[in-house]
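Narrative of accomplishments. A recurring question from our advisory board has been how the design workflow behaves on a single, concrete structure rather than in aggregate. To address it, we present the structure tokens for one chain from the evaluation set, followed by the sequence designed for it. No filtering or post-editing was applied between the two.
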């Protein structure tokens, strides 16, 4: 029979992946997988398996709701650790460096390493990086700090940080799933959940609100709402951010340049992107447009008020 200790131990394995450095290939691995081979699906499969493991056994416990709370608080401690140590920054490597084990690894790469040192040093970031993937964004943002990767080791450190950022996203998802179940616990049929292959979407409202902003503009708006505490779901700022991100992703769509609405995914990635200086102009222009909309709305209300109460006065 599965015990609480079993569940906690399995969870800690997911939360604390083993990081190794191979001196032969001069690359890093996480749980035996090369950092260049990572995708969100890799970690997501582990968290999904854990969720199924938990839900398949949770009815055997006398206080399943309290167990879920205890487990997601353990997850939260890891999320908070990542946040406090600023995983979005290159300096995060110094935090994890003492945990890295040197270990020779002769396993082949699953895919070609597109971002080799010659390719990266030759990138024209002013035009190339905007069309890249998440790793290219990170490589760009660490470019000055590493002096364009004059030390080749810095490029490998960047790839490791990128892989750990994917891990960070996956445990955020795990936290949100357990939190959602706990918050709606009385409405859930645990037996039905454990046998369902799509339980992550249970009890989600299929209706979504479309926002007439592009993906980054939407992230800027959400960042404003979170940082000013106009929207909040938890009194603790860090927890509030995680819960709001989940809420935004589940309930809102952004609008592409061709007018098509798309679901918001990996919002945390976009929030990280707009925090760098290269996004300052985008942030300012978006906020200026929002201010103009508020100003015009205010003028419309003032005009209606004056017409009703002071018909002889006109608004400049």
């Amino acid at each position: 029979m599965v015990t609480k200790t079993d569940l906690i131990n399995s969870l800690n394995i997911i939360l604390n992946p083993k990081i190794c450095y191979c001196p032969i290939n001069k690359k890093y691995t996480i749980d035996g997988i090369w950092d260049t081979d990572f995708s969100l699906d890799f970690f997501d499969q582990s968290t999904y398996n854990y969720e199924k493991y938990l839900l398949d056994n949770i009815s055997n416990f006398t206080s399943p709701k309290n167990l879920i709370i205890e487990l997601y608080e353990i997850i939260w401690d890891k999320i908070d650790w990542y946040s406090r140590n600023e995983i979005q920054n290159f300096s995060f490597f110094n935090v994890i460096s003492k945990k890295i084990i040197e270990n020779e690894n002769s396993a082949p790469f699953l895919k070609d390493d597109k971002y080799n040192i010659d390719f990266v040093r030759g990138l024209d970031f002013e035009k190339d990086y905007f069309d890249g993937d998440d790793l290219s964004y990170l490589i760009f943002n660490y470019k000055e700090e590493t002096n364009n990767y004059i030390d080749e080791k810095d490029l490998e450190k960047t790839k490791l940080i990128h892989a750990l950022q994917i891990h960070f996203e996956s445990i955020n998802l795990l936290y949100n799933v357990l939190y959602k179940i706990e918050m709606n616990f009385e409405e859930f049929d645990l037996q039905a959940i454990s046998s369902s292959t799509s339980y992550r979407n249970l009890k989600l409202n299929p209706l979504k609100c479309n926002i007439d902003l592009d993906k980054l503009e939407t992230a800027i708006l959400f960042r404003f709402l979170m940082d000013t505490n106009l929207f909040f779901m938890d009194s603790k700022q860090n927890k509030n951010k995680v819960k709001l991100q989940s809420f935004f992703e589940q309930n809102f769509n952004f609008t592409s340049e061709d007018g098509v609405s798309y679901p918001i995914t990996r919002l945390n990635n976009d929030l990280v992107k707009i925090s760098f200086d290269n996004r300052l102009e985008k942030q300012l222009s978006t906020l200026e447009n929002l201010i103009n909309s508020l100003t015009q709305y205010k003028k419309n209300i003032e005009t209606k008020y004056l017409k009703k109460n002071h018909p002889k006065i006109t608004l400049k």
